[in-house]
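Input/output pair, single chain:
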Amino acid sequence: MEKGQIVKAFRKTGSYVGEITEIHPDMYVVRVLAVLKHPMQGNLHHPREVDVPFFHERKAHAYREQIQVPSNMVRPYKEDVPPYKDSLRDAVLKFYDELVSKPDDPFSRRSLEALKVLIPEYKIMYGIEWPDIQ
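Output:
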């Protein structure tokens, strides 16, 4: 891997396309260019549990945000980089569809509540319209 290389980076529960801006012994700094997978909602230390002290609303990293990623969580990315706004919308819609497909799952219901808080923020930040989400 080298500075300036376009990569796929896995951070916590999300996945992103970005550009390496710094290289350190066990970590890369990656500038986010697109979202491939929206982060899961909830508590990272208690995944898929709803009875936790704090159930987090987890936003996707912002466009051009610099994130530190362990080097073992970075891979070369060979495809075209989608526009950030389009990639975020696609990642949110895919996550939303996963959650609504499991209406009896407490984790899915709670995650959907958290995601519905984030959607208006994404509209304000990026001007994304959400006609398919109630």
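The first helix runs from residue 84 to 100. The radius of gyration is 15 Å.
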